[in-house]
Design goal:
Elements: E1 20-22, E2 26-32, E3 35-40, E4 50-51, E5 65-68, E6 73-76, E7 80-84, E8 94-98, E9 104-107, E10 142-145, E11 151-152, E12 158-159, E13 167-172, H1 178-189, E14 202-204, H2 212-224, E15 231-234, H3 264-273, E16 277-282, H4 295-301, H5 319-336, E17 340-343, H6 358-370, E18 380-381, E19 394-395, H7 403-415, E20 424-425, E21 427-428, H8 438-449, E22 454-456, H9 473-488, H10 490-503, E23 508-510, H11 519-522, E24 528-530, E25 534-536, E26 550-556, E27 561-563, E28 569-570, E29 574-580, E30 587-590, E31 594-598, E32 612-617, E33 623-629, E34 661-668, E35 673-676, E36 689-697, E37 708-713, E38 716-722, E39 726-730, E40 733-742, E41 746-750, H12 767-776, H13 781-791, H14 797-805, H15 811-822, H16 825-828
Parallel strand pairs: 14-15, 14-22, 15-16, 16-17, 17-18, 19-20, 21-22, 32-36
Antiparallel strand pairs: 1-2, 2-3, 3-13, 4-11, 5-6, 6-7, 7-8, 8-9, 10-13, 11-12, 23-24, 24-25, 25-30, 26-29, 27-28, 27-30, 31-32, 33-34, 34-35, 35-41, 36-40, 37-38, 37-41, 39-40
């Protein structure tokens, strides 16, 4: 037998010799034209082993020039200019000038601004917390210190650094080309893995001593309420915890509690029969004690007499212990039905070897071990530091249940992409303490819908729960609808998952990635891109007690946008405050956007590829989207999930092992033509026929604009045939439905239009929605009538704005009305918004 899969770590840690400029004690490696590694070693021995951050330094050699002037050297690429005196690094002796659109300089040791990265844990955090650095800066320069990190030997084992005084740092110099800086980070540190499809769906987790009956009744209740659930998380009470012999602390455990789960194998099979996956909580710090069912086998493997009842200490630096830990303990549980592990390490970052962090060791080997065979690797664990993006999914920890914590979470998640960490699983609803607030939990679940992972969680306080039926009726309905919509998003999310693994595009991205020169993009930390098509501005504040609407500070770039839920069109660049009732979250798409959804109102648990798909389409500009599907859980992209770049700079193909199928969806604005498919290559996991719905957001075809739908088989026009369809008008647009279309056919929908520039987003009369705001506002009756008279007239919008602004209205009420009046310049007029002071 070969060595275990967990030691097969595909790395290319030694850079090309042509990329190195070195002296007796210094070494520079020009990794890319904007990424430089610089080292100092007193004994002249430099590090070429992989570190937790750097696993691939063998990149294509960029163009650069070196001048050796005897007393010093200069290194120049198109992005930077290094001036160095050949002495131990100092502010006087090492200076780098930035070239390009951001002119600046850096001297060794200088602090520079940083847009932030992430942190190891949110345990006990109420509101904001300090974040570690990322690789992005408005100053254009970011430094990553790798001097103390753990290393990997050639045989796949771990070790510490040789000399604690050596300097090993990386400097990113990409100006405000943020996306390229992050791609350079991934190139050296490894890409994010491709997650199983089921991970995109809803997770149930709670720190509570469930027994089998209660746990299955819980999921029966979700099933009865038509709420899909993909992942069952069982916290630490799955194993023996209390009343252990010799006063043993039950924090660590590996033996099923048969009082709670009399037949664990049958319990796990019941979950699998529902289409669900199971993960169990691990606290491995206390090692292996004699009461465990597997103790005798583990002890004998390690040369210990089981009769001694000797505690087997946890030691992540002992390879023999780790072999027993995986090959006996975990593999036996997995063979019985455990799908993956929640590695909940909370015991610090030190071990018997200086510089070796147990969390890193556990994440690394658990992830690789979980990918043995043909299965796709997956763990749930904590963030270890730069490079941790290779081991997903991240567990962010036990936050305090407050509005302040909710308000920080969108920024926390988006900013983590600045260090390449894109798959956080936050405790949706918060974890502990705080206070009961149905509105708070509802808004948190809504944020979860637009988070990388939606994992409901809470502590063991019997009053702290996440079951929707434990909340008031308004919140229950909204939470259930939100959980269903999360599953409807999975066709889109899984495509973004593939995009993340192959193209290094995290799912959640701060707005300034795409608009680095716009100051406003930095002033909306809670607003983010959610994949390629959606912009989300979650509401993280209480509703106003007058309007009963929640508000969110929002910024929209130039262009025309539509809210996918309200159908309101926005065509006014700049800052605005958006307002929504509790059942809505502001989610915007730009003209030309295409978003595929599961067409079912209640998608299936387990998230198979759907038989019905709905496309959200915003007309007004050309658009394209390629839906990516596969069997959802097969082999990983490249070995262990680390996409490498070969000696010639050629990336390993994203479908080198995973066999994706692609369904192109295009929209041509000039002709009003939507084309879907065909899906290729064929895949037995994809239905042979599908129903397609096309939701034309904020677009109402005119009466004389004929819609035509045709289907074409692979041999094209010879078998082109018209298709029957239905149309319906809904609050956010028009829906066209076509039934039972073969997936190997192309489907063409000609929208028809009367405008010379093609179909357009509707110019929507805001008055019906303004009426609704006035009607529901808690204000004097006479004031309602007065406000309505200011709006419901033939005056120019500018005059309406002036009339409303002079009436002393509460700011939240005025803003909510003006948002609608001024949203679309085609209705409001180009100058009307200037009257509004945000």
């Amino acid at each position: 037998m070969g060595k275990p899969a967990r030691y097969n770590f595909d790395v290319r840690p030694a850079a090309h010799s042509d990329a190195i400029v070195a002296g007796d004690k210094y070494r520079f490696t020009i990794l890319t034209d904007g990424l430089l590694r610089f080292e100092w070693s007193e004994d002249g021995k430099f590090e070429d082993r992989a570190s937790t951050f750097a696993v691939n330094r063998k990149l294509a050699v960029p163009d650069f020039y070196v001048w050796d002037r005897g007393h010093g050297i200069e290194i120049v690429t198109k992005r930077f200019h290094v001036i160095y005196d050949k002495r131990k690094f100092s502010a006087e002796g090492l200076k780098i000038n930035l070239k390009g659109n951001v002119m600046g300089s850096w001297t060794y040791g200088q602090d520079v601004s940083n847009l932030g990265g992430t942190t190891r844990t949110l345990d006990g955090v109420n509101g904001r917390t300090e974040l570690g650095p990322g690789v992005l800066s408005r100053d254009g320069i970011a430094v990553l210190d790798d001097s103390k990190s753990m290393l990997f030997e050639k045989d796949g084992w771990i070790t510490g650094r040789r000399n604690g005084d050596d300097i090993d740092q990386y400097i990113f110099m990409y100006g405000r080309d943020y996306r390229e800086a992050v791609r350079a980070y991934y190139a050296v540190s490894g890409s994010q893995p491709l997650l199983p499809r089921y991970a995109m769906g809803n997770w149930w987790s709670r720190y509570h001593a469930y027994d089998e009956k209660e746990y299955m009744e819980l999921h029966d209740h979700f099933e009865k309420d038509d709420v899909p659930m993909n992942v069952a998380v069982v916290d630490m009470d799955w194993h023996l915890v209390w009343d252990l012999p010799d006063g043993i602390n039950g924090w660590t455990g590996y033996t099923w509690n048969k009082e709670l789960f009399p037949d664990p194998d049958a319990f796990m099979k019941k979950l699998h029969d529902r289409g669900m996956k199971l993960t169990l909580n691990l606290h491995p710090a206390d090692g292996f004690r004699w009461h465990e069912a597997q103790y005798a086998e583990v002890a004998r493997y390690l040369g210990i007499d089981p009769a001694s009842k000797k505690t087997i200490e946890f030691d992540c630096t002992d390879r023999t212990f780790m072999d027993a830990y995986f090959d006996i303990v975990h593999h036996q549980h997995e063979a019985r039905g455990v799908d993956f592990w929640w590695v909940d390490w909370q015991q610090g970052n030190t071990s018997k070897i200086p510089g070796v962090d147990p969390l890193w060791v556990l994440n690394h080997f658990h992830f690789l071990d979980s990918g043995r065979g043909s299965q796709r690797p997956l763990i749930l664990s904590r963030f270890g530091g730069p490079g941790a993006q290779r081991y997903q999914i991240g567990f962010s920890g036990d936050t305090i249940i407050t509005w302040e914590s909710l308000n920080f979470q969108p920024e926390f998640t988006a900013t983590s992409s600045n260090i390449g960490y894109g798959w956080w699983s936050n405790d949706i609803g918060g974890h502990t303490h705080g206070f009961k607030d149905d509105e708070l939990t509802t808004r948190w679940v809504q944020l979860g819908c637009y988070s990388p992972i939606l994992r409901l969680h809470s502590d063991n306080n019997p009053f702290n729960t996440r079951e929707p039926w434990r909340f008031n009726e308004e919140s229950r309905v909204i939470m259930e609808d939100t959980l269903r919509f999360r599953h409807r998003l999975i066709p889109y999310l899984y495509t973004m998952n593939a995009r993340s693994a192959s193209d290094d595009e995290p799912l959640v991205q701060p707005m300034y990635w795409d608009y680095p020169e716009e100051d406003s993009a930095y002033n909306v930390p809670n607003q983010f891109r959610f994949g390629s098509e959606l912009i989300v501005s979650p509401i993280t504040q209480r509703r106003d007690n007058t309007t009963h609407l929640g508000g969110a500070k929002t910024w929209l770039p130039s262009g025309r946008y539509v809210d996918i839920f309200t159908g309101v069109v926005y065509n006014r660049k700049g800052d605005l405050q958006v307002h929504r009732p509790l059942h809505q979250t502001p989610v915007f798409v730009r003209e030309g956007a295409i978003v595929p959804l599961d067409g079912a109102w209640r998608p299936k648990s387990g998230s198979p590829n759907p038989e019905s798909l709905e496309i959200l389409l915003a007309v007004g500009a050309d658009g394209s989207f390629t839906l990516i599907e596969d069997d959802g859980s097969g082999s990983q992209v490249d070995d262990g999930g680390f996409r490498m770049i070969d000696d010639e700079g050629v990336e390993a193909s994203a479908d080198k092992i995973v066999h994706f199928s692609y369904t192109p969806i295009t929209y041509k604005q000039s002709t009003g033509v939507v084309k879907i498919g065909p899906t290729s290559p064929s895949n037995p996991a994809i239905p042979k026929n599908r129903t397609w719905k096309i939701r034309l957001l904020a677009h109402t075809p005119t009466r004389d604009a004929e819609i035509r739908c045709i289907s074409m088989s692979p041999n094209m026009k010879r078998n082109a045939k018209p298709l029957s369809y239905t149309t319906s008008s809904e609050s956010n647009g028009t829906v066209i439905t076509l039934s039972s279309i073969p997936t190997d056919n192309s489907c063409i929908i000609e929208l028809g239009f009367t405008s010379p520039s093609g179909p357009q987003l509707d110019v929507i009369d805001p008055n019906p929605k303004i009426w609704d705001i006035i009607d529901k506002a808690w204000i004097e009756m006479d004031q309602k009538w007065d406000i309505w008279n200011c709006v419901n007239n033939s005056e120019p919008v500018l005059n309406k704005v002036r009339a409303l602004s002079g009436r002393g209205l509460k700011r939240e009420l005025l803003d909510a009305i003006l948002e609608l009046l001024l949203a679309d310049e085609r209705y409001a007029g180009a100058g009307a918004g200037d009257e509004m002071v945000m």
